[in-house]
Each structure stands twice: as C-alpha cells, then as structure tokens.
Design brief:
It is built from 19 helices and 2 strands. It has 436 residues and is mainly α. The protein has a single domain, classed as MFS general substrate transporter like domains (Growth Hormone, Chain: A, Up-down Bundle). It has a two-stranded parallel sheet. Helix 1 runs antiparallel to helix 10, helix 3 packs parallel to helix 7 and helix 4 packs antiparallel against helix 10.
C-alpha cells in the first residue's frame, strides 16, 4: 500500500482548516510514538550500565557504554534527515522503527551471558545509536506538515514525545530488570516497536512536496546560520540527552546507597514536558531572547550541581540537577523553534512570499534540522565522556562541571552577538537579519 499526498498547502488557511489540520495531527501522533521508542532504545544503556555490577568494569568504561550510543546517534542524524525526502515520511518511519529491534535483541542476548567481553558490549551499545537517528527524520518530516505559524508547538510536541522516551526507560527499566533480570531490558521493547511500525504503516502519509535531492538539502551546510544554531543546540539538546543518560551512573558513583533508581526518570520527564513551553515562549517572545537568558540559567544550574555534589547529600544533588533538566528542556524548544523561523524568513527575503519561496524555506529548514540535531546530539557523547574522564583523573565530576559552565557562557555570548544585539529584535521572524 502506498500513501502519497500530491497536494499539500498548509500555509493556505482554507486548506489547513478543511483538510490539512486533521491529516497533520494524525501524522504527528504516530510520529511521536515511533520517535518515543527510538529514544527508549537509544538511551537503554543509561540504566543498563548502572546495573552491570556483576561485570568488572571501571566507572570510565561504564561511561563509555553510555556515551557511544550518543556518538553513533549523532552521526546517523544527517543521513536520517534525508530519508523522508528521499523515500517518504511514512515509509522511512516504518523502516527506521523496525531497525530498533536489532539493538534491543542484541542487548537481551549479550547480558544473558556473564562471559560477554567488554568490546562486544561496546559494539552493541553503538548499534543502539540507530534510535538517535529517528529524531532527525521525524522532525524533518513533521516540518512539512504544519504551517509556519504552528510549527513551534508542533515541533515542540513531537520532540517532547520523543524525549519522554528517556524518562520511560528510567522509570520502567528498574522495575522490569528487578522482576525479570537484565536481559529483559532489551526484550521488553520488541513488541512495542512492532506496534509502532504497524501504526506508521497504516496511519501515516508521504508528502510529494517533501521530495528533495540530497544535493539540494546539503546546500544548507554552506550557511553560517546552520553552524551557529548547531553550536547552540549542543548546549541545549546536547545537555538534555547528556545529563539524562549520565544521571543514573553519576548518581550511583557519587551516592551508591541513595534511591537514585526510583527517581532517575523525573529529570528527563520534566525536561521533556517543558520543551513545548520553550517553543511557545519562542513563538511569543522570540527564540533568541528566550535562548539567551536560558543559557544564563543553565550556567547557574551547573554551579548548583557542583555545590550539591560536594555537599555529600543526594537530595540537594537531585534537586539541583532538576534545574539543569528544566532549563535544557526550555532551551531545546526555543532553540529548535529558531530553525524554521530563520530559514523560512530568509527564503521569503530572498525569493518573495509566494508558494515556491515558502516551500524552499521549508526544505531548507528540514535539511538544517538534520545537521543541527546531529551536531547537537554530539553533546550527549561529550558530556558522558567528560564525566568519565573527570572521574578517572580526579575521582569527582568537578572538572567536567567547570567545563560545562564555561561552554554555557560561550553559548550566551554567541546568542547575544548573533541575534540580540540589535535593539528591538524580539520577534522570531526578525532572526533572519542575524549578523553572520
């Protein structure tokens, strides 16, 4: 069965009211389901690594197992961005969802044997990176379905639904592992993956207007805006996925007797749920001002975590970390909203306000999402490696936290320089006039 929609004009008010809204919502719902499971598989090792006490692995080795899926997922986000435009959003969602079965099954098999070598665990953790690619293809696809004025909330909901997958893993997996053993961490997700792929097959659509060649899409790599936003997204989404995957192992290392497993899900859940708020604030106030002051708050959050980690108390540490999760979530929404706003505003400035210009801007934004989300996800790898190296060198996370604080200061300065120096630049459409 092939489901291709040839005519799609979401910025036409009449079309959106009578046809587009219903179809877009249906595709958004099942896109969220598939992306959610992508995140669960991608971040499984955040819990599994913290439960591998039976293996004689160092803290640094365990942080490698958590970091490698982030590295692979980051790299895969670029080709995954081209998938919907090349094969159709529905078709690619089905294929990418089914691919999640591979790392889930491999995990279940590997932890069933106490003789599995470290290199095999490292390779299987790398395969779990396929789940990280789903975000880029899902977001690039949903960009085409919604009109410019509604993309902030739509992209925020789509991203939040995926991000909550991290919280699902950290809420459900301790219970599943406690009841059925470590191997169940992999096998548990297989039937859900099959259901998500089936729903995508029967209920999602391909858009003919989304077709674009990789050469056309890669043209955005030559725009300075792509790399500026990539840097900022390392600070927001990279922080979210890095902290979310590092928190269980970090807590176990600092507070081995604390009930970290019971509450690890709370931070990723809060950061995911507040992400649409970041998009909404960006729609109302402009992406740049929201992002600017959010980086200041993230810097303050790092200081709080450092003070709490040195205090020796788990609960102050836990509460301080919630500040980082909440600010990372808000920054995810506001930074991500800047992407379609900038590229579509530039397309209008360069080509006028016609349908062709709007479609060109949407294609540019979709392609930019892949590159920006790929670079941003790299932050998840860097945060876990920073914690691992900090523990190996000093036995504490202090050096890593200092590096994170310095990076947020750089993000604050870059946002101010490129987007908020001009008095009165508060509406997100004005970001097209950034000084680059």
């Amino acid at each position: 069965m092939t489901r291709w929609i040839a005519e799609w004009h979401p910025d036409d008010a009449a079309f959106w009211q009578h046809t587009g809204r219903k179809v877009a919502r249906r595709n958004l719902v099942f896109s969220i389901l598939a992306e959610h499971l992508g995140f669960t598989v991608w971040t499984l090792w955040s819990i599994v690594a913290a439960r591998m006490g039976a293996y004689d692995f160092s803290t640094d080795q365990l942080f490698w197992l958590v970091a490698v899926p982030n590295l692979v997922g980051s790299a895969l986000r670029v080709p995954y961005t081209f998938g919907p435009a090349r094969f159709g959003g529905r078709n690619f969602t089905v294929a990418s969802a089914l691919l999640l079965i591979v790392p889930a099954v491999l995990l279940g098999v590997a932890v069933s044997s106490p003789d599995t070598p470290y290199w095999a665990f490292l390779a299987i953790a790398a395969v779990a990176g396929v789940g990280g690619g789903n975000f880029a293809s899902s977001m690039a696809n949903i960009t085409y379905f919604y009109p410019r004025a509604r993309q902030g909330v739509a992209l925020g909901l789509n991203a939040a639904g995926g991000n909550i997958g991290v919280s699902s893993v950290q809420l459900v997996m301790p219970l599943v592992i406690g009841a059925f053993g470590l191997a169940a961490a992999g096998w548990f997700w297989v039937p859900f993956i099959v259901v998500a792929a089936g729903c995508a097959y029967f209920f999602m659509d391909n858009l003919s207007s989304a077709k674009a060649s990789p050469r056309e899409q890669l043209a955005v790599a030559g725009r300075a805006q792509t790399w500026i936003l990539s840097f900022l997204y390392v600070g927001t989404f990279g922080s979210f996925i890095g902290y979310a995957t590092a928190f269980p192992l970090l807590s176990m290392s600092l507070f081995p007797d604390a009930p970290w497993a019971a509450v690890a899900f709370a931070g990723p859940l809060a950061g995911s749920l507040i992400r649409p708020v970041g998009g909404w604030l960006a729609d109302r106030l402009g992406g740049a001002p929201v992002t600017l002051w959010n980086f200041a708050a993230m810097g303050a959050g790092v200081v709080l975590v450092w003070l709490a980690s040195a205090s020796g108390g788990f609960w102050p540490f836990f509460l301080a970390f919630q500040v980082l999760f909440l600010t990372a979530g808000i920054g995810n929404g506001s930074t991500y909203r800047m992407i379609p706003a900038i590229f579509q505003a530039k397309a209008v400035a360069e080509r006028g306000t016609g349908e062709e210009a709007l479609l060109h801007g949407r294609r540019q934004a979709s392609a930019a999402i892949g590159i920006i989300s790929a670079v941003g996800a790299l932050g998840g790898f860097l945060i876990n490696r920073a914690f691992g190296m900090s523990f190996a060198a000093t036995g504490s996370p202090a050096v890593a936290l200092a590096a994170f604080g310095a990076f947020y200061a750089a993000c604050f300065a870059l946002t101010w320089w490129c987007y908020t120096r001009t008095v009165g630049v508060t509406r997100i459409a004005s970001l097209a006039h950034a000084r680059v």
